[in-house]
Design a protein that fits this description.
The structure holds two protein chains of two kinds. Chain A contains eight helices and twelve strands. By secondary structure, chain A is of the alpha/beta class. In chain A, a hairpin with a 2-residue loop joins strand 1 and strand 2. Chain A starts with a strand and ends with a helix. By secondary structure, chain B is α/β, with parallel strands linked by helices. In chain B, 24% of the residues lie in helices and 36% in strands. Chain B is built from ten helices and 21 strands. In chain B, strands 1, 4, 5, 7, 8, 10, 12, 14, 16, 18 and 20 form an eleven-stranded mixed beta sheet that branches. Chain B has a ten-stranded mixed beta sheet with strand order 3-2-6-9-11-13-15-17-19-21, covered by helices on one side. The longest helix of chain B is centred in the C-terminal third of the chain and has 23 residues. Chain B is globular. The N and C termini of chain B lie far apart (47 Å). Classes of the chains: A alpha/beta, B alpha/beta.
């Protein structure tokens, strides 16, 4: 589904990603772990198409297409979804109005009929229940005045409505209490299927107790220094990142 | 002869023409007022950018253009339906080039006790009310354009809502400018009197079917708000893009009254709205809101003065501007709190969304506080569209244009929602959205 080949990217002339290679297949869940400043979020942002990052080398192939050639909205319409680390507040735009416009833009692109108000509302209510989101938040402006947990939940809710093929969770777990973490993880698990894939970017192993990954990759200083199964996350939890930093230096 | 005198010749010759056209009316109260205002204007002339009040708005081109007077009404061939905001059933007065036209107006569902008609007619039929209210709120000595309007008082709207009258539907005052040839001037003078414990919503709109017609609308509206009365006054300015529009609204509120105005500005090459509100009693609430949309080379100036004269009054003011192209906005909000006006609560906000590098805004709050137990807040912001928010919306599948539209609409919506009359609100909302979309097309080409 997704193939990242020798990806180099940076911001303001400073290189952050220094050659990432990663393959994600249908139905797989990949966790990308790493300390602060390792480039985890940069990778997520580059995949979502944020234009402040510059790709200097390498390529990203998504379902046979050059992902980096696509505008952010084209990526979204092709099924890529990023849950933001810091969801943006948009006063004056209601959550449902925003989401209806987004869903219909995606459906239109896929050649599906746009949903009318009634169909949309029943879908939204069902998905809100799925991620345990308070219906009252639906009519409020997007993320405006939401608590940290509500914002993260709103990201997962949007994901549930938009049904992406490739979901990238950018530190969705950071700062969440255990209840919120469980609901967010449960929401993601309900959306897992053999046809879609999830990339979980996280700083902490804790989330991976609830979203069990198929693969774990460790990112250090812009490179993937170790890949393995779910047990790698536990090993990291015990030994910390320094253990890998030392090995990485030795091999380099 | 000095340059100033030459420039001002157009209104001198216009005044002579007006005097010649007045048969036997020359001795009336109104004509004495006209002459006094004309004399005052002849002394002062038009303001220049050296005047503090006109620092950011240059009216020299207006002073130089030889605007012709339209001294008598002519029946035009035009369709007014597009200007009725989808509500042909509202009672309305229609003016074309400053003159009342009964055949386009409609007063069929007006309560019997209400007087609504042309000022020209009211000067004959209700001379006492005219003497009492024609200049009850305005001061032509302090404003050259009010003096100009007063010198040329001929017609306008006259609305008298007696004590204890609730009018459910908005009253529409529609001013249309349309002639084959441009460079003409009209001076609408509107007098609105709302009696004790009455309630009314009034929509004043200024439109032109000709997008590039050059003319000058110089309007003055006086609104007397009686004790415990509730008045909503909405103004929709959509003049031609080559027009000048200068308008002053003078409001005087009596105790426990509630006045709320919403000024929506779309049109004109150069426009200036002055609002002067005097809170002349206790327990008054006064709300002045405005939304201005600038594009191309438009210059849009909003000046407001809220005069808190008595204790325990609240005023709320929110003006928002969306400026695109090379447009220029000006906002000046003055709040005076007099010595006796203790427990005043005044809030003022001016927010501007600047969409292009060449658009600009000058904004200035002006607080003059002479009382010591008051709450006054003000704030002004000038910003661009939030790039983070645009990316967020794009990342959910919306195109960049749709994301921009959504954010601009959200910025405007907050003000639209403050319009209480539902019919006015929904129709203006539609027009505002259409205009914003059209503006987007313009800036792309």
């Amino acid at each position: 589904m997704l193939e990242i080949i020798n990806l180099h990217a940076g911001i303001d002339g400073k290189e952050i990603l220094k050659g990432i290679d990663l393959k994600v297949g249908k139905g797989e869940v990949h966790a990308i772990m790493g300390p602060n400043g390792s480039g985890k979020s940069t990778l997520a942002q580059v995949l979502a198409g944020r234009d402040s990052y510059e790709v200097t080398e390498g390529s990203v192939i998504y379902e046979g297409k050059d992902l980096l050639e696509l505008d952010p909205e084209e990526r979204a319409r092709a099924g890529v979804f990023m849950a933001f680390q810091y969801p943006v507040e948009i006063p004056g735009v209601s959550n449902t109005y925003f989401l209806k416009s987004a869903l219909n833009a995606i459906r239109k692109h896929r050649g599906q009929e746009e949903l009318d108000a009634v169909e949309f509302l029943s879908l939204v209510k069902q998905r809100a229940k799925m991620v345990d989101m308070d219906e009252e938040l639906l009519s409020r402006p997007v993320n405006h005045g939401f608590s940290g947990g509500e914002k993260k939940r709103n990201e997962i809710f949007q994901m549930a409505v938009l049904e992406p093929k490739l979901a990238i969770l950018d530190e969705t777990d950071s700062g969440l209490d255990i209840d919120a973490l469980r609901t967010v993880a449960a929401g993601v698990n309900k959306l897992r299927s053999k046809d879609n894939a999830v990339i979980v970017v996280t700083h902490y192993q804790r989330l991976l107790n609830y979203i069990i990954p198929d693969y774990v990759h460790v990112l250090l200083d812009g490179r993937i220094v170790r890949s393995g199964g779910k047990e790698l996350a536990l090993e990291l939890e015990q030994k910390g990142y320094d253990w890998l930093r030392e090995t990485a230096e030795v091999t380099a | 002869m000095s340059t100033t005198e030459k420039q001002n010749l157009w209104y001198v010759s216009n005044f002579e023409a007006l005097e010649r056209s007045l048969n036997g009316e020359a001795a009336s109260y109104v004509h004495a007022l006209r002459k006094a205002a004309f004399d005052k204007l002849s002394q002062t002339g038009f303001p220049t950018t050296k005047d503090e009040e006109w620092k950011y708005t240059d009216v020299s081109s207006l002073a130089k253009t030889a605007f012709k007077p339209i001294l008598s009404p002519k029946k035009p061939s035009l369709a007014i339906e597009p200007y009725l905001l989808g509500h042909p059933e509202w009672n309305r007065l229609v003016f074309v080039n400053g003159h009342f036209l009964m055949e386009l107006s409609d007063l069929r569902s007006l309560p019997k006790s209400v007087i609504m008609g042309s000022l020209a007619e009211a000067m004959k039929s209700h001379p006492k009310l005219i003497e009492e209210y024609l200049t009850a709120c305005s001061r032509y000595e302090q404003n050259a354009f009010t003096a100009l309007n007063t010198a040329f008082i001929q017609d306008g709207a006259f609305v008298y809502v007696p004590k204890g009258t609730i009018i459910e539907q908005p009253l529409h005052l529609l001013f249309i400018s349309s002639l084959e040839e441009g460079e003409f001037v009209s001076h609408p003078r509107n007098v609105i009197i709302v009696g004790e414990s009455s309630q009314v919503a009034i929509l004043e709109s200024y439109v032109s079917p000709r997008e590039h017609l050059s003319y000058f609308t110089n309007a003055v509206t006086e609104i007397s708000v009686g004790e415990n009365a509730v008045v909503e006054y909405d103004k929709f300015q959509n003049e031609s893009m080559a027009a000048y529009h200068i308008a002053s609204t003078y409001v005087r509120q009596q105790r426990n009254s509630n006045y709320a105005s919403n000024l929506v500005t779309f049109g004109a090459k150069l426009s200036r709205n002055n609002v002067f509100a005097v809170l002349d009693g206790e327990g008054i609430e006064c709300t002045l809101n405005g939304l201005y949309l600038g594009t191309a080379n438009q210059h849009i100036d909003n000046h407001t003065t809220i005069d808190h004269a008595k204790p325990h009054c609240n005023s709320f003011e929110v003006y928002k501007g969306i400026l695109d192209g090379k447009s220029k906005g000006v906002f000046n909000g003055k709040i005076i709190v007099r010595k006796d006006a203790q427990k005043t609560d005044a809030k003022q906000t001016n927010k501007n969304l600047v969409l292009s590098d060449e658009a600009s805004i000058d904004t200035k709050p002006q607080l003059e506080i002479f009382a010591n137990d008051v709450k006054c807040t003000h704030g002004a912001t000038i910003g661009q569209l939030d790039r983070e928010a645009i990316f967020y919306l794009q990342s959910r599948g919306l195109s960049k244009e749709d994301a921009r539209d959504m954010l601009i609409h959200a910025f405007a919506k907050d003000l639209i929602d403050r319009i209480k009359s539902e019919g006015v609100r929904t129709n203006l909302e539609q027009l505002i959205y259409e205009r914003l979309r059209a503006g987007r097309v313009n800036t792309r080409t």
